[in-house]
């Protein structure tokens, strides 16, 4: 096979391209702040010129100056309000902000008109910064479907786009590469990591003519596959399609300010209209201009600056606090959503377990009649077993070889593999068999019946025709798995469920060990999705799903809150999820719930404070007892208190 020549010029070009991309990204982030900076600078200069009564700053110049200062932050809001009106949604916060600030200009309060809109723009920037910060810590979505396939054409393997590979063509997959299309194995055997597809923690050993699936990772040796499906019909493509469909069904929680504005805005607008015209019916010396002036002041006072800035700041504080605790929320709405979760559904492999094989138990002649055993003790048993497994590259063999055995190392010779069953060879002049029960039975070895009830992966050893014992291999629970379940329950979550692609018996065993409410194993991605959809149909049920594999992506998207393991999780799972646990610790789920509740509590405190003061000042303004400066001062003061309250989130700690 021809080697692909590495072009240093291409590498340099790619490096420059990446650098340029990062530079463009930072530039675009900076550009978002330019309008607010321009408006703020011009506002401060204008106020200074007014304060010192500069001679040339008279007549039309202040209007032009403040008008220019207003445009960078005001025009986008006015435009958004107009677009909403065209769609039939009149009473939005954009509409209120627009008429309130334009009203300030009409009555000659130009600085206040700019300041009010600047407050709004700053609040939006805080909210956007929070979301961008979370997204900046999350890997960008990478298409897990392999980008190329080595297909055999014209007597050689050529690298092509997988979409161009036809059914029946032969492809080659090197060690560590993902299989690009579904197919049938042409090589004698293959060891594949299918965890991303099935959730199965144990790598699959596939033999010739068996099916292999796109997205599986080749672990051992170069293999060849005959394709049986086109790229668009592969396993990975099907899962990604489910993700898109599930995302389309998923409704996002709207921020409170948008819901509140739909009620608050029309009330304020109609009150202002009433304040302008109704006095004509009750006041003898009615002057239209005076009551219009008072109504416009009323509109400016009603502008929800404190609400607008305090709510995003509260969420920003929550997002920042969560980030420092290793939890990334992709938006403020998910902080709210976490407070409503009452059912947690979790995957097993890589979520509550480490996804790494360890010896769980070694059973030798101490557990059987001596007549059945061929070794003196555990150390000798393990030396025989390790001598054989040294000849294997299987992940289970690696787990066995981590065992520390006393005494001299044994050496195995004449080792050969029995397809799908295990190994046979010679150790210290004795015939040794290492493998599953099928290997033992086919060689006439009597196996104790109690091994039939073992749910973990089991490796048996026979020496000179006698059963010597076995070891069980299991995926270890994460150190904080028990603590995680305890804290989730303490957080008030009423139901904890496990859904896994791993064997049902193993899933049920882990569930029992963690004292979960119920569990189900041997599930395909479609099955997990169906189970969660069923849960969501139950009254008053808000579901959070926690997973890490590609196979978890559809259910992550369909759940009310999707939570992904950020350290070892797949790119698709991370991108699809709403919340990312950077440290892969399931115990952070309870902390995420508590941070969400603390954030929501502070946000509601800010809402109560801002709304309470606003009502008082509005009444005073309607009665002509509050001036524009008093209203602005009250609004800024409330905003400052709200900011100080939100800052408390930065100092809080959660268990």
Automatic annotation (TrEMBL):
The chain crosses the membrane at residues 32-54, 60-78, 90-108, 114-131, 263-283, 295-316, 607-625, 631-649. It is found in: Cell membrane; Membrane. Residues 145-244 form the P-type ATPase A domain. Residues 1-24 are annotated as: Disordered. Keywords: ATP-binding, Cell membrane, Membrane, Metal-binding, Nucleotide-binding, Translocase, Transmembrane, Transmembrane helix. Its main location: membrane. It is an enzyme of class 7 (translocase). Belongs to the cation transport ATPase (P-type) (TC 3.A.3) family. Type IB subfamily. This is P-type Zn(2+) transporter. It comes from Winogradskyella aquimaris.
């Amino acid at each position: 096979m021809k080697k692909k020549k590495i072009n240093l010029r291409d590498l340099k070009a790619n490096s420059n391209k990446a650098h340029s991309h990062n530079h463009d990204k930072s530039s675009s982030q900076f550009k978002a702040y330019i309008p607010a900076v321009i408006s703020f600078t011009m506002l401060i200069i204008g106020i200074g010129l007014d304060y010192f009564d500069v001679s040339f700053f008279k007549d039309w110049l202040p209007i032009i100056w403040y008008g220019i200062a207003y445009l960078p932050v005001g025009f986008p809001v006015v435009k958004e309000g107009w677009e909403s009106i065209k769609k039939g949604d009149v009473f939005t916060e954009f509409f209120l902000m627009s008429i309130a600030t334009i009203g300030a200009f009409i009555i000659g309060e130009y600085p206040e008109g700019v300041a009010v809109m600047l407050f709004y723009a700053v609040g939006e920037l805080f909210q956007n910064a929070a979301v961008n910060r979370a997204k900046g810590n999350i890997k960008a979505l990478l298409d897990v479907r392999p980008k190329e396939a080595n297909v055999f054409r014209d007597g050689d393997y050529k690298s092509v786009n997988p979409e161009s590979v036809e059914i029946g063509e032969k492809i080659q997959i090197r060690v560590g590469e993902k299989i690009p299309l579904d197919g049938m194995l042409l090589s004698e055997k293959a060891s594949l990591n299918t965890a991303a597809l099935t959730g199965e923690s144990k790598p699959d050993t596939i033999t010739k003519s068996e099916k292999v699936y796109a997205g599986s990772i080749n672990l051992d040796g170069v293999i060849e596959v005959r394709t049986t499906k086109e790229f668009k019909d592969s396993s990975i493509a099907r899962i990604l399609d489910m993700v898109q469909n599930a995302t389309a069904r998923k409704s996002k929680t709207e921020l409170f300010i948008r819901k509140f504005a739909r009620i608050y805005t029309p009330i304020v607008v109609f009150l202002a209209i009433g304040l302008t015209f109704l006095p004509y019916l009750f006041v003898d010396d009615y002057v239209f201009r005076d009551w219009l002036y008072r109504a416009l002041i009323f509109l400016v006072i009603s502008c929800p600056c404190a609400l607008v800035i305090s709510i995003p700041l509260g969420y920003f504080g929550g997002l920042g606090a969560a980030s420092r605790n290793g939890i990334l929320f992709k938006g403020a709405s998910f902080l709210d959503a976490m407070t409503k979760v009452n059912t947690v559904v979790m995957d097993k492999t890589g979520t509550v377990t480490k996804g790494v094989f360890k010896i769980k138990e070694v059973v030798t002649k101490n557990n059987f009649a001596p007549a059945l055993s061929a070794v003196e003790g555990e150390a000798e048993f393990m030396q025989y077993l390790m001598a054989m497994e040294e000849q294997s590259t299987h992940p289970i063999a690696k787990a066995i070889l981590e065992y520390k055995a006393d005494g001299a190392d044994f050496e195995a010779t004449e080792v050969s593999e029995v397809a799908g069953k295990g190994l046979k060879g010679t150790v210290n002049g004795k015939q040794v068999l290492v493998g599953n029960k099928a290997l033992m039975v086919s060689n006439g070895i009597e196996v104790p019946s109690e091994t039939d009830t073992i749910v973990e992966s089991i490796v048996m050893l026979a020496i000179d025709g006698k059963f010597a014992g076995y070891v069980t291999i299991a995926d270890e629970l994460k150190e904080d798995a028990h603590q995680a379940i305890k804290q989730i329950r303490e957080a008030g979550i009423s139901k904890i469920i496990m859904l896994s692609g791993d064997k049902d018996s193993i899933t049920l065993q882990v569930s029992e060990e963690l004292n979960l409410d119920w569990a189900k194993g041997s599930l395909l991605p479609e099955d997990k999705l169906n189970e969660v959809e069923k849960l969501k149909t139950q009254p008053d049920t808000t579901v959070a799903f926690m997973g890490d594999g590609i196979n978890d992506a559809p259910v992550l998207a369909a759940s009310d809150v999707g939570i992904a393991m950020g350290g070892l999780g797949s790119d698709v799972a991370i991108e699809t999820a709403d919340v990312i646990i950077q440290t892969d610790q399931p115990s952070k789920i309870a902390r995420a719930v508590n941070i969400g509740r603390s954030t929501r509590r502070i946000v509601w405190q800010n809402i109560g404070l801002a709304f309470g003061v606003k009502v008082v000042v509005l009444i005073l303004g309607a009665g002509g007892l509050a001036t524009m400066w008093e209203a602005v001062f009250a609004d800024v003061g409330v905003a400052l208190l709200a900011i100080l309250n939100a800052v408390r989130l930065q100092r809080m700690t959660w268990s």
